[in-house]
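Late entry, written up from scratch paper. The run itself happened at the end of the previous shift, but nothing got recorded in the book at the time, so transcribing now.
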Amino acid sequence: MAERGARLLLSLTFLLLLLFTTAAKSTDKGSVARHFTPFWFLVEPADILAVRGSPAVLNCSAYSDLAPRVEWKKDGTFLNLASDDRRQLLPDGSLLLTSVVHSKHNKPDEGYYQCVATVDSLGTINSRVARLTVAGLPRFNSQPEALMVYQGDSVVLSCDVNLDLVPFTRWELNKEPLDLDERIISLPSGALVISNVNESDAGLYRCIVEIAATVKASDEAKVEVLAETGMPRQLQFLRPPVLSTKVQGQDMLMPCVATGYPPPRIQWMFNDKLIDSSGNRSKIIGGGSLLILNVTDEDTGMYTCLAGNENDTLQASAELMVQVPPQFIKRPTNIYAHESMDIVFECEVSGVPSPSVKWVKNGDAVIPSDYFKIINEYNLQVLGLVKSDEGFYQCMAENDARNMQASAQLIILEHDVATPTTPSTLLISATNDHVAQAAGSGPTPSAPRDVVASLVSTRFIKLTWRLPAEPHGDNITYTVYYKPEGSSRERIENTSRPGELQVTIQSLMPETKYVFRVVAHNKNGLGESSTPLKVSTQPEVQVPGPSPNLRAFATSPTSITVTWDMPLSGNGEIQNYKLYYMEKGMGNEQFVDVGSLSYTINGLKKYAEYSFRVVAHNKHGLGVSTEDVVARTFSDVPSAPPQNLTLEVRNSKSIMVQWQPPPPGTHNGQITGYKIRYRKGLRKSDTTESTGGIQLFQLIEGLERGTEYSFRVAAMTVNGTGPVTEWVSAETFESDLDESRVPDKPSSLHVRPLVTSIVVSWTPPENQDIVVRGYAIGYGIGSPHAQTIKVDYKQRYYTIENLDPSSHYVITLKAFNNMGEGEPVYESAVTRPLSDPLDPEVDVYDYFNAPYTPVPDPTPMLPPVGVQATVLSHDTIKVTWADNSLPKNQKITDARYYTVRWKTNIPANTKYKTSNTTNLVHMVTGLKPNTLYEFSVMVTKGRRSSTWSMTAHGTTFETIPNSPPKDVTVVSKEGKPRIIIINWQPPSEANGKITGYIIYYSTDVNAEVHDWVIEPVVGNRLTHQIQDLTLDTPYYFKIQARNSKGMGPMSEAVQFRTPKASGSSVKPGGRHSGDDFATSVGKPNLSGNPTSMGENNIPMIVIVIVSVGAFTIIVVVVVAVICTYRTTSKQKKKRAACKSTNGSHKYKASSKDLKPPDLWIHHERLELKPIDKSPEPNPVMTDTPIPRTSQDITPVDSSLENSIHQRRNSYRGHESEDSISALAGRRGMRPKMMMPFDAQPPQPVISAHPIHSLEKPHHHYHSGSLASPTRSCLHHSISPRPLNNSICHIDRVNSSESVRNTPSTEPLSIPGQSICSVEHPDPDTGTGFLSTSSEEETNRNPPTAHVRPSHPLKSFAVPNSSGTSFESPVLPSTPLLAQAGTTPQLHSVKTASIGTLGRTRSPMPVTVPSAPDIPETSKMLEEVESNYEPDELTEEMAHLEGLMKDLNTITTA
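Output as recorded:
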């Protein structure tokens, strides 16, 4: 027995040990993931130039924990090195070619080589591709020739060989090696350049090509050096610049060799600026060739060689293209993933030209398919991972300069293996929410029940299901597995949050059958799978697809030809194509209908960039649009001459010529320079000088004394010279001023101290026969020698800045010329203290009389008259004037010129800009849009100048905003989590009056613009409410401003997540619990937090309010009853009087006993405007609900609508219908409200307005603007003193989209429409209803509101109009009260006042608060109606109702 027990115990022990071992292995397998294995190239092959018959080595070395196997490919095919005698694999993986073979018909070694490394258990990686080039046989394309050259000139000896042989080329002089330096250089072609030739350069020259053991020499050429004769020789280029292409980091030598006598001077220009050849990177060698060391991408551009002497000027241009090898901005990273997941390998590269990217998996190219996709130009997306996708992936980037590679490893884990680190950010959003966790020890959920497709479209399917029968937990999440029927790759889509029982599968193919199954998760792992569900997507509308191979290229300066191919999926016969095009930066897209596959668009702007796209059209409609392609028209000569040509006589032998570039839009290319032609007198022959592209002046020297010269200027591009300006003349001085001595001291010096600056002004020396080149200003605390500033001789004032307040400064001023500085004058000043700043409204320059005006002359010049400013565009104003000192024909025959100055008409802006001209008209460009400028003109002749003329003003035109609205913030509304408030500030560059804003919002920040929901807002509002948003959902908001010229740019997207739920988002005390929406919208206390009333004070306040209210009600009822029975007879007479006057719309002056009327007369045509009781925190807030569908959105702007339709009228079948419905809005309804007339007796509380007309209602639908209100007015005529004030009402445009609460700003007087009314019995009533002051309107800008009372009180005092009211489905315009009733007795009760006796009141807009929904008030009103008959007490009950409504509002607030 004991033995059996022992054996049984031993068996149990062995069994337990076996179970423990198995469990441990299973646990290790389920919780440990494989690590990434290091595997990369240490050395990759590089491009080499080999020599025939010599050995060559291509280096390669790979690293891994396991020894990699290295192989080689040539031209994409593996080499069989085992049977190759000439090619050997070295131990480190390099390839050795023992002897390079190369002949004319056999080139086995030349080509592209690639190193391939493989680790059998891991995968394969490829190196970069290296090119092996074999140098050809030495041969000369051209040989040097015998030349004779003048001493000091330049010479070029040709020796053109193949580019691969240039490194093996050298020169010999008299069969001795020739040393090269900066005077003797060798060009990239192999030619030899000798500059500044001397006698030692004479001899026999030959070119030697020495490669390996082969040496070949050119023919000898004899160079003879001749003595210079001094006779002029024509200027010409021996070797002009040529197109050059370099790789970043290389040196560039651009040739330019010119000859002629006098010897030419060589200058270089890069694009439109002069090159400083004395820099560290660039210098001129060989007499004119440009050498740039270590070129970069910034050196790409047009280089122009300018060669000139006293007789002629030549120029030649060539382009340098710098190629930048690919560089990885973002390399792919290693990824852990599970089967069925979607992953993205990111790869971002840069380079010039833009690199192309291809992907390689384990050494084989990845072919794009339904599961391998290239997204965002470079990234690789793998959908529905399977185990065979594991391995190494490489991003191969290549351009003309080089190719590079970067690799990453993908490891696919078992489903029960957890990822060892945080999930990679490279997992897309559909899969990174639920990465497989290690399985727990508890039970997993059963299969989800009743999986059905609740919504099926062409490209998406919405699945819903029920909770598993056995969930085994609370936080259940779900994963949907799906695949096309018959496919082995299964993809997954996760629910967004625990407990969600639906998911939408996007990006499906039309008319395709898919298989779906759903699996539930709990904390223990994956549960059972549901039964597979097969669903087919719907067929797509058969419209054409995009047209492939869209290309555009310029054919002339005004035409571009566009070509394309037929769509791959035409879906029937293509009827025609729509070719859309527009100039880049402009918003007006145009199109033409084309019947072929190409079209040439003529009449385009010269040297302008255009974008093109094509949409095919069949019988079903427009198809899918292509992507935009861009092309630029060819450049041409400028089509307009330079502007504002002016001449300034410097002395008896020189004249300064100045000008401005041709007007914008007429350059027709890059301005490469300007050509100046001048002649003496009326001679026909002229002289030419040229300048650089950005140089807008030229000093012409060597002229004759006292001679008249005429000048004109033309702009140049690479295509030639444009039109020239008119001839402008000036006469040199007869004699020069004296510069043999220093100038005298300035005749006066004045200082004006400010807080941190001192304004200094002066007049020139009295002796003006001595040349003054400028003025030296010295200043310092206690001594004028601390600092010195020099200014131009024309300047008459200067502001010394950055001084210390309350400090004593000594200032000195000296005139100077080339002989030195003259005698100084001194002045001292004490800067003001900080507490005594200068009034900012004072113009600093007004402290001085004509700061530009020199010392008064016995015969001063007369200032120009008739100055006029004509606005031409948003940045250009033409200034014209007349000169009374000229003859009647206003022809300028002397050397006078005019100075035009201008500045913005802002008191704080005191800085003028000036420009000189010799004409009586000047074009001022570069101005700011929508800005008022003032202009004045001064004439100068010699040393005499006039005072400034009278000013002229002009305001530039508006243009579209250049910047978006700024400071966009989004907060949730307190207590209403479905409502958000968005605030912003106007654009910093509005370029005009902002007439409106458009708010775009969406749940997808990457959605197309036309998929965003839009909300229009009027231009004077900076805040807006958006209602009925989805809880716990991130929204993105953008704002776009518009003015009268169009729409500006959109702001950056601002993200905001709505609260999770109204109940959970607010904590006690009124604070939100979420950080994202913790902004309080209520009134802040001193600390900035929302104020709340303590619990102990609430009962006491309620008791006090109820007591006061009850007492007030009792008093009002008693007084009303007494007044009713005393005034019955009087009220009948007054009613009769009102009825008679109502027919004629006039009051009789003798009706002195009339009482104030009830303002609900004709209430079916009136709406109310309340004041100062809005419960909203911001009175300028609009409250626009979201439309349910995109069809409900009222178009905001016709131009914008057209633009959007033109750009997007093609079919886009891939868009999600569900995403559209998820953002659908709700049609807004205006709440019906009751307006208490006498809730606040001391103040006027309402204003009455007619709606449209007495005969028939009007309904307006505005689609062309943000707010296009209609206006109608009621003219009040009051006895005994009529009030001739019209009260205008701006009706709302649309119930769901229009901007509401718009104040009336244009009162109109419409006679013939008046109401029966008398003065208010209380003479102390405040101001009238509607203020007509524009200033008050601007500052306050209170909103109006549309109020529709819901109680059933009938109209009284005036019979109901016979017209029938109704509501338009487009524009609800329900009258205030549309009930008909009899005419009750009019009693003397207090009504809303529209004035006080003997004084006319200006109407004032008032604001009505949004009435809360209070059941108690409605019930009380019903009791009031049931207890009283429609007799004299109806009037009192209506007012009692208002009091109760007010009281109820206060107690429940």
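The chain has a mean pLDDT of 75.
(Scratch paper discarded after transcription.)
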